[in-house]
Amino acid sequence: MFENITSQLLFGQILLGLINGSFYAMLSMGLAIIFGLMNVVNFAHGAQYMLGAFVAWLLLTFLGVPYWGALVIAPIAVALLGMLMERLLLRRLQNLDHLYGLLATYAVSLIVEGLIRQRYGSTGIPYDNPMPGGMNLGFMFLPYYRVWVVVFSLVTCIGTWLLIEHTKLGAYLRAANENPNIVEAFGINVPKMVTLTYGFGVGLAALSGVLAAPIYQVSPSMGSNVMIVVFAVVVIGGMGSIVGAMATGYMLGIVEGLTKVLYPEAASVVIFLFMIVALFMRPSGIFSGRSEGAR
Amino acid sequence: MNPKLIIILVAAALAIAAPFFVYPVLLMTILCFVIFACSFNLLLGYTGLLCFGHAMFFGGAAYITGQILKTTSISVEVAILCGALAAGLLGLVIGQLSIRRQGIQFAMITLAFSQLVYFVLLQMEFTGGENGMQGIPRNPLFGLVEVRDSFSFYYVILALSAVAVFAFYRIVHSPFGEVLKAIRDNEARVESLGFDPEKFKLVAFTLSATMAGLAGAMKATVFQFATLTDLSWPVSGEVILMTLLGGLGTLTGPMFGAAIIILMNDHLAGFGEWALIGQGVILLVVIVLFRRGFVGEIGALMKYLARRGKKPSAALVTAKPVVEQSR
């Protein structure tokens, strides 16, 4: 069955897998950060990713703001919306069972997706590629924009990881994750930190959305489709483990790409099969570490 | 006469008379979702497990029942039961894996499983993929009685629903049901009393999956088609909304919740996305303002009034809302 696989197809799918993996990694990292501090599974993450792409498209269409401007403005705008949501909604639920946080963010995603679909229809809208062209490597064709996405997401992921593991700010964050009361006693404004952290996670989702806009089309359902895969990624990597989320995201993106070449029928389910295997082998996640143990 | 018995008799009389006044297909849809909501309530309301993939049992059973009716001459009620049992079997397998993790992760895992089932069934030939399974026949009841018209079929669905609701009532009021509630409230203590919570959770999950399957199988025979929509995660979300709106862990709440949401969907069907947006808004309002659901709130109000009529000190012992705990 393998003789008809050209290198073009193989490397093309690996690259596509790497691209998908970049989005999985960025999205699941944002989820893990939010979950780590707030114990909220942010179901609206997909909707916020979609909003990022939509804001970029709105900026381009109605204000003429190019891609590079949108890459900065859209995440900030969506992050501000997210912080508003944290203040008005999630804060009221923080002392309840965590299930309510999941359900409330699910409700928000229903409303956001519904409104966008009502206003702009459910068909995808193309977004012009800001870096057309590419280079021929001999064994495959490499579009510049895809290289940019992979590199940019890697830099973002590593940057975020460094921020959390190796800066004072990150140390506060990790400490508040373990015991918010003591951190508050040290004079740190934990509620404000929670708001900012949520905003940061949401901003990461929106940033992925802007990155995704030229590759996939901008559509209301782009978020919910990727969301469930990202949930599986987070479960496999171990909840609240930032490195785990990142590594699992890239890995599963590539696995998915390879499956598309070797056994296309299984491509849509391979991540879920991985999840089953992971549940069998490591019930608490393959990268579960310090932050997981407490729960 | 016992007031409970009067309520049941009145409800039965209303249910029997209803198709003379209301479109039977709408009534049957409501009944299907009433059973679906009850099955979900058994898990979240009574066991404290949030399954975010209940649609896999609902939609999966619909395909199984549809396939049986299309390819064999097995009577309609047996086909529905087969669909329910198949869903129960699926529940046993998936429950085995999912209950390894608790709380929020259980929700995410069941969601992922439902997506897996969705993709598998999408690719299988017999389901008809994106087009769904069309033209499911209603084979004669017991192989004898024709039930092709909606009016007579309504009574078949009503009878099945009545049996399911009675079973649900018996389950939650049995010693087994009491253990489930105890697991919901304090799992560690149940374990220390010598019970194995995992085993109880698995049985509850399987029972709930069977019941959800019954609901889905009934729906397939009502509409005479089965689609991927019934398997998709928005349906899993819908049943959560129905249960929460009516009142988590109350016997009748989810039934009312199901009826309200189905009627709302029916009214908003012509207005594009507004049905979904409305669901989101209702869910938010329920979560923020009245987490006991409206049957739960009415019950709490009645209890409060009754206590105020008696001794004032007794009012201190108010019922704690279900699943609510400080972190």
First and last CA, distance of chain A: 46 Å
Could you say what the CATH architecture of chain A is?
Orthogonal Bundle
- What is the class of chain A in the CATH system? Mainly Alpha
**Shape estimate of chain A:** globular
Let me know the number of strands of chain B. Answer: 0
The percent range for strand residues of chain B is under 5%
Unreliable sequence segments of chain B: 313-322
Protein structure class of chain A: mainly alpha
Radius of gyration of chain A in whole Å, from Cα?
A: 19 Å
- Describe the main β-sheet of chain A briefly: 2 strands, antiparallel
Average pLDDT of chain B works out at: 84
3D structure, described in words:
The complex is a heterodimer of chains A (295) and B (327). Chain A has a single domain, classed as ABC transporter involved in vitamin B12 uptake, BtuC. Chain A has 12 helices and 2 strands, in the order ααααββαααααααα. Chain A has helices at residues 7-38, 45-63, 67-93, 98-120, 144-166, 168-178, 180-185, 190-212, 222-237, 242-262, 270-281, 290-293, and strands at residues 134-136, 141-143. Chain A has a two-stranded antiparallel ribbon with strand order 1-2. In chain A, a hairpin with a 4-residue loop joins strand 1 (134-136) and strand 2 (141-143). In chain A, helix 1 runs antiparallel to helix 8 (190-212), helix 3 (67-93) runs antiparallel to helix 8 and helix 9 (222-237) crosses helix 10. Residues 289-295 of chain A have low confidence and may be disordered. Chain B is an all-alpha fold and 327 residues long. Chain B has a domain at 24-237. Chain B contains 13 helices and no strands. The A-B interface holds A 39, 41, 89, 92-100, 102-104, 106-111, 113-115, 117-118, 224, 228-229, 231-232, 234-235, 239, 265, 268-269, 272-273, 275-276, 279-280, 283-284 and B 50, 52, 97, 100-101, 103-105, 107-109, 111-113, 115-116, 119-120, 122-123, 233-234, 237, 240, 244, 272-274, 276-277, 279-281, 283-284, 287-288, 291, 323-327. Chain A: Belongs to the binding-protein-dependent transport system permease family. LivHM subfamily.
